Amino acid sequence: MDRRTFVSWVGVGWLAGCLPVALAACAPQNRVTSAASPAASPDASGFQVVGTVADLDQAGFLETEVTAGKAIVIRDPANASAVIAVDAKCTHEGCAVKWQSTDKTYFCPCHDSKFAAAGQVLQGPATTPLKTFSAKIEGDSVLVQS
User: Fold this and answer.
1) Nearest-angstrom CA–CA distance, 119 and 128
2) Rounded distance between C-alpha atoms, residue 64 and residue 34, angstroms
3) Strand 62-66 and strand 69-76: pairing?
4) How far, in Å, CA of 63 to CA of 50, rounded?
5) Which pairing describes strands 79-87 and 105-107: parallel, antiparallel, or unpaired?
6) Are 74 and 99 in contact (CB under 8 A)?
7) What is the C-alpha to C-alpha distance for residues 72 and 62, in angstroms, rounded to an integer?
8) 3-state class percentages of the chain: helix first, strand second, coil last, to nearest 5
9) Core-most of 2, 32, 66, 125, by most CB within 10 Å?
């Protein structure tokens, strides 16, 4: 085997070895920040299970996929027996907001918008509140309707 053939085969082998890694890196990620299991399909009323009360209490929030997109579910700071669910997409330019449990606010790291626990704008540049979803606790499950 001459040197050119050998180098060609090494190159082909290298590409074949890297291809699965590149495909895995480009695949969409379904991440659940809390220990909650992925959301179940909606029932007849449109509610879907997004996690357990134990997961919510342990992590302080649930970040999960619902029919309408990614949602963040928290306990209502004004009523500990209720939950609030908001769209995790900032209304300014669509960046993902993060729940800040110490401040009880959502924060957008792209342009520093800040939202209250129920989604109202506290600090711009966002001018529109976060979209909210109906949410409730039934037994040991947290449900969201999107």
Assistant:
1) 9
2) 8
3) antiparallel
4) 9
5) unpaired
6) yes
7) 6
8) 20, 35, 40
9) 66
